[in-house]
Automatic annotation (TrEMBL), chains A, B:
This is fumarylacetoacetase. It comes from Reichenbachiella faecimaris. Residues 126-412 form the Fumarylacetoacetase-like C-terminal domain. Pathway: Amino-acid degradation; L-phenylalanine degradation; acetoacetate and fumarate from L-phenylalanine: step 6/6. Its cofactor is Ca(2+); Mg(2+).
Length: 416, 416
């Protein structure tokens, strides 16, 4: 299985080796889809026409608003569906779709003509803080370089609960948030539009099979519960954050909008990009120890597009720059018995690499406004301006095969 | 409308003036119910038999697992349903149910014979920190009495996002959580069962009508979005909390289990208990100003029951001991455009009154273990032990009418 009978450009994120899952909005309804090259594949019709027989799929599983019921079936089912889709579309396929123009026209749609919708109903969203360089950078700015990391940081993957209601699909414009800020230490707080609007470059992983309250997931079986990943922009209002976050953490600074890429790339598709993580010193507690590689070499980039369409790449990072990996995060999250549900999302936290061009937020890139970014139109950016569109992309490449996430794109409109 | 033709004991929380809403588990299905005295009222059959005609209710709205679709209809509909139920069951009712034994037997069930289920699917759960005495007590213990409140505390209702997956119905036993603790400052953290397990006495309010991303709810229209309230036990593992919570807030210390009372008492039912709040100094920003009374005089109590059934009341607090009220909390939560959805829950934070017998957590009641509580069996409690059941109750009384929440009850089992 190397090539599809659907033409796929060399720079495409979606060769037959990928087979991601998403949801297409279809009039008043929805259908689940996969993607090869520039085609969205309607899985509801693929099932209806009999191409997915023998896979233990409930009728209508692909005609729902979200993928939750499908991914809850667990890897033994979802992996077989992904493999069947690969078999149907591979160059030498004997499944018959290639030669059936009527079926092909119903099942394959040009992605330019489909509207993607949020792929899962996210029950709970957790954000970690697992990139050492990011935590160090923030610690340097807000505390001091000698004590940049908090004492707990290397003992546990620090995380906090975020808001799921305001997680939206790529392409959803949003208004600059308003809120309390305290620009002057000796004066009362003021209210108004956020002045320090920032992106955060993150990867999010989606829970497939859930657990019951009281169950703990281990680093060994964590992969059974991770359905797949997306690129995630966790917008942050730095001025709101600074004033509100002590002692209980970020709240209004983070819950006004977060953007998710539309295609969930399965953990299995990312297998070729597994790589080793950093050595962890001090030694972690036994429940956080893991075997094998659970970091992923996935290139990430962030661009700012101005209203006139001029674009500047402001960050080139990589998902491998994580101190804590996903299996550690999930083991930690559930070690107290906290249950997870299909569709829950957990995000990495801002992913910053060791070099300054690899930082994952404007706070770090422009270092609190002291190193503004020069834009192609001659303007500069310390944070994100009204009218700017932030575009994030992610992909891995190995042995000539590129597997990616497409993009997550969001435009900032002025405050209302 | 003063009395029901159903007998209601004087000490009942559920006279005809209450008419709360809940969900009953019924074999493999569910139905929505209200309650008068010791009877659960099956709203699905009440509708099916034609008693709720003319109220614009979709067919089958009361046969779902959760109340979300019903409460999403908004106050103009849900208030009329509540009023119709009152009319059907009032002493002088002409609706005919009283005389129809066949219908009565289908619709009215002894609460001893029904199993309550979580009333709403909670999308997002937010916990505030709005009792001044509680914030002050915690500040005294962890910082110092001269700077007990953080600088932001009187300018905004401090809150943070919690976990909704682990919110369970009253009566759900749970195991003592395990996690990292750092008992000795100069030694590495250790892993094991939580040693400092605590309750937090809270009230939770449930969102009815939702909003779109970008919309802000004001203090003036907040009541349109608050469907009703429950008593809420926000269990906390103090040793886990201390080690993990800086800088991003509570996480595993709070998300292992939280218990909700089964009956949602509507905001309208609590109207008689409205009372004024404290004067707020410093003056709040305009979006937090409010008109009228939005605090509620609701008596709250917490008891610890030992395995042998001996009970000790350890706290007698009141919902009126809030600095920030619900309309301020909701206005703050959405002022940045954060959307809310039907079924979202927001909780008060621990409600501590000014006197030590009014404190809402063991941390405060036993003052970090320095003032242990004496139990009837001669043992003492600094925190909650395995085998203990914590029972919380809430009710208001005015003009001879008592309206209450029943109880929220949870037993702690040993760590697995």
């Amino acid at each position: 299985m190397n090539k599809s009978w659907i033409a796929v450009a060399a720079e495409s994120d979606f060769p037959i080796q990928n087979i991601p899952f998403g949801i297409v909005k279809n009039g008043n309804g929805w259908y689940a889809a996969s993607r090869i090259g520039e085609y969205a594949i309607n899985l509801a019709i693929l099932q209806e026409k009999g191409y997915l027989k023998g896979l233990s799929l409930p009728d209508g599983i692909f005609e729902r608003q979200y993928l939750n019921d499908f991914i809850a079936l667990g890897k033994p089912v979802t992996n077989k569906v992904r493999e069947r889709i690969q078999r149907i579309f591979e160059e030498e396929s004997k499944d018959g779709l290639r030669g059936n123009t009527v079926h092909r026209n119903k099942i394959m749609k040009d992605v330019k003509n489909v509207t993607m919708s949020l792929p899962v109903q996210i029950g709970d969203y957790t954000d970690f803080y697992s990139s050492e360089q990011h935590a160090f950078n923030v610690g340097c700015m807000f505390r001091d370089p000698d004590n940049a990391l908090m004492p707990n940081w290397k003992h546990l993957p620090v995380g906090y609960h975020g808001r799921s209601s305001s997680i939206v699909i790529s392409g959803t414009d949003f208004h600059r948030p308003k809120g309390q800020q305290k620009p002057n230490a000796n004066e009362p707080p003021v209210f108004g539009p956020c002045k320090l609007l920032d992106f955060e470059l993150e990867m999010g992983f989606i829970i497939g099979k859930g657990t019951e309250l009281g169950d703990a997931i281990t680093t060994t079986n964590a992969s059974d519960h991770i359905f797949g990943l997306c690129v995630f922009n966790d917008w942050s209002a730095r001025d709101l954050q600074k004033w509100e976050y002590v002692p209980l953490g970020p709240f209004l600074a983070k819950n006004f909008a977060s953007h998710l890429s539309p295609w969930i790339v399965t953990l299995e598709a990312l297998e070729p990009f597994k790589t080793s993580g950093p050595s962890q010193d001090p030694k972690v507690l036994p429940y956080l120890e893991y075997k094998g590689d659970h970091h992923y070499d996935i290139e990430l980039e962030v661009a700012i597009e101005t209203e006139k369409g001029e674009s500047k790449t402001v960050s080139q990072s990589n998902f491998k720059y994580m101190y804590w990996n996903m299996v550690q995060q999930l083991a930690h999250h559930t070690v107290n018995g906290c249950n997870v549900r299909p569709g829950d999302m957990m995000a990495s936290g801002t992913i910053s690499g060791p070099e300054s061009h690899q930082y994952g937020s404007m706070l770090e890139i422009a270092w609190q406004g002291t190193k503004p970014v020069q834009m192609p139109d001659g303007t500069e950016r310390k944070f994100i301006q009204d009218g700017d569109t932030v575009v994030m992309k992610g992909f891995g490449t190995k042995d000539g095969v590129r597997i990616g996430f497409g993009e997550v794109r969001a435009k900032v409109l002025p405050s209302t």
